[in-house]
Structures are given as C-alpha cells and as structure tokens.
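Anyone else keep sequences and structure tokens together like this?

Example one:
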Amino acid sequence: MDAGYFSEANVQAVAALGCEPLIPPDRQLHGRPLPAAPRGRPPVGLSVADRMRRTLRTKRGRARYARRKAIVEPVFGQIKQGRGFRQFLLRGLRQVRGEWALICTTHNVLKLWTALRRRRRPGERLRVPCGSRKAEQKAQR
C-alpha cells in the first residue's frame, strides 16, 4: 500500500491476513538519498511506524515494496487513462463495489482478448473454448 493507507489498524489487519505489511508511514520523496539499511535485530519498544520505516529500509523491504510499481500501479494507470475511469457514477458502498467489479472484469477480459489475439496465427480464427461444434460453426459466421 502507499503512504496514504498507513495506520496501526491497517498494519495489524494485513498481518492478521497472514501477509507481510509494507505500508510506509511517510511519503517517499523521489531523488532523496535513502538511509543505510539497518542491520541486526530491531530494538525493543519501537512504535509501529518506526518498525515499518525500519522494515522498508532493509534490502528485502525495498525490493518487495518496489514490486508494486510493476504489479499494481500499471493496472490503475491503464484503468484511469485507457478506460477513462476517473470517478464512480453510483452511490453507496454496495453499488460502488459492483461498479468497481465491472471495471476490473472488463479490464481482465480485454487483457485476455489481447493475449488470445497475439497467440493465434494470422488468418486463423479464434477458437471457442467450449469445444462444441455448433458453437464453433456459429463463431465462424
């Protein structure tokens, strides 16, 4: 998560799910030199924020946190820029969740469609995955 989501409750909730929380307590500024990676065991009595700062300064913590640039951020950029999705149109948590599920589903279907198109040979039609002859004939029309 990015710095806007840091709170002791969020760190505990992520840890309760069995995941390693990597949520910076402070905004990370570009171009600033990073402090040296800590060595040894963490001191006793560190606050949650100080413990998280220490974790994110380690080589392992920096490498894991940097992965979000390649995994999560491109998807949000594609949804915002490519799909033009900037705000929810519906109100209420239930409806917003449904709208977000629809946006994510269309994003994933378009990725699958693109991958299928790249795999086929030029001039070859896309195959219907159900294997039904009638469905294949219908798809060829």
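And example two:
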Amino acid sequence: MKFFIDTANLAQIKEAHDLGILDGVTTNPSLMAKEGIFGEEAVINHYKTICEMVDGDVSAEVISTDYEGIIAEGEKLAALHKNIVVKVPMIKDGIKAIKYFSSKGIRTNCTLVFSSGQAILAAKAGATYLSPFIGRIDDMNWDGMELISQIAHIYSIQGYETQILAASIRNPLHIVKSAEVGAHVVTCPLSAILGLLKHPLTDIGLAQFLADHAKGNK
C-alpha cells in the first residue's frame, strides 16, 4: 500500500520524505489556504516546489465545477510537472472531464467520493485514483471501512484499474484498516503516519535493553 501525505506544509512533506516511506502528496484548496498560499501564481509555484521535493504523484485540485473550466485548469496543472495528478470532484462534469483527461493520458484523482455507485462511475471514466472520504463517512455514523471494502470487491470482480486512495484518514487505525480491506493508497496527516511507530511495549522493551546495556558497561 502506498503512503501519501495530505498537506501543503513543506516541512511536513520533507519530514515524511526523509522517513523513507513517502510515495506521494495530496493537496486541496483548504490545505493551501491553511499554509497562507493564495492566488493562482502562488499556488502554482507551491505545486512546483512540492513536485521537486517528492518522487511520487502529487494531486493538484481544480477549482472549477463546469466541464470547460475543469479541462482548462486540469491541462494547465498537468503541464506543470510529470508528477501532477489532476484532482477532480465527483460531479457530472467532473466525470466527463475525467473521461477526457483519460483519453489524453492525463492522470486523475476523483475526489469527494462517498458511495460505491460513484466509485463505479469514476472507474468507468478512467480515473487513476479514487478518493473515498473515510473520516467524513464515519462522522455521519456510517462505516467508512465498509465502503472501502465494497469498492475493492467491485473493482476486483470487474477488473477496474482505478486505485482506491483512502482519504480523510484521522488516525493510525484508519491506516491499518484501510490496508486490511484493500485500499491501494492512503493519504493522511503526518501525525497519523508517525502514530504507526508507537506502541507501549516497544517503549518498555527499548528502556529495558538500554538499562541492561548501561549495567553491563559499569
């Protein structure tokens, strides 16, 4: 399973990259705004900087919601760097745009997915990635992992090549469960990734090893 970091923060991207397990980055307008990145030129330059930091895919989201606007923005984003994946919302014009991008060899990430029906449409249109929002589904008292499992089952039966990118990850358990039910990728905050490192028995064991080593050197 691939690990993407969901942020526009360059320090966090560098830390994840230096850890040696980073496969890519996902961003969105909210994450850009959180870092104080506003305006088309600033956003484009920020995408370029991220692409220079990471070897893998970088999802860059369009703002337009009409077909022509999505196409224009997507083509401009895709031209920035070979790592760019155009992030397109799960709407009617978004599906049409994904089909167009697929025919032109432009990779896409269909975002804001909340049902298996939407997942089927995105795969039929040729999306490279599909982003179901696990955390937001859980917030509605539904089961985000059940959705991932169902999509993985459908894709396997139908032979769809679209990769399931589990998004809206809130904690380390979400990462583990996503791997368990068949997600190809998870995108999450750095804190969730670092949380996988932690276990009290590891801390206890390491403390004991170091204590025994210290005794032996006296």
